Amino acid sequence: MSNRQLMEETRHALERNGFEVHVHATPEQAVPEILARLPAGATIGRCGSVTVERLGLWPALADRGHPILDPYVAGFTTEQKDAVRRQTQHADVLLTGTNAITTDGHLVNIDGVGNRVSAQIFGPRQVVIVAGWNKLVAGGVPAALARIKQVACPQNARRLNLDTPCARDLPCPPPDGCRSPGRMCNAVVILERRPRLTPIRIHLVAAALGF
Length: 211
Ligand code: SF4
Fold this sequence. Notes:
Layout: H1 3-16, E1 20-24, H2 27-36, E2 44-46, H3 50-54, H4 57-63, E3 68-69, H5 78-88, E4 93-96, E5 100-102, E6 107-111, H6 115-121, E7 126-132, E8 136-137, H7 140-159, E9 187-191, E10 200-205
Parallel strand pairs: 1-10, 2-3, 2-4, 4-7, 5-8, 7-10
Antiparallel strand pairs: 5-6, 6-9
Iron/sulfur cluster (SF4) binds next to helix 7.
């Protein structure tokens, strides 16, 4: 199956599960369409997402005058970061990525702190998720979790300077992973369907984005 067929199959499955889905042929096409669907003046919550960063959405949002709840401001103390993460739970919009999407329409994410996955479920008035086709996984939730542990975690651990076995290209220790303080797989969340009170819009982009 081609990547485009995979995207279409996934789009239909996600829609069956209650998610709003938009498919974009290129990142250049995706960015203005993502921005155009955000309410003017909406406060946007930021969580760790290489995909959103690589698309240049944060400067574009700042240019449009959106207040941004950003825990990554240089010089922030741990307390300041935590305060912004808590405010993000009440943002107008959470803008983030996802670790994996199964072709049968489930979102699969892991989180070390938990702010990203909790805000995807409930809190912000709206959730907007951007994903490249490299995040699509056939084979259901087990294959998605394998992708996260084998592909996403090693790259994210190195990016964030976390001392985990996967950062050193060692296998994730059985049976339930590592005991590192930097462990990213503390909260493992599967959205089988859209949580009832949270509108979730997913932008699928025909390009490899993020990890
Ligand atoms: S449990 Fe630890 S070693 Fe395994 S993937 Fe997660 S962070 Fe990496």
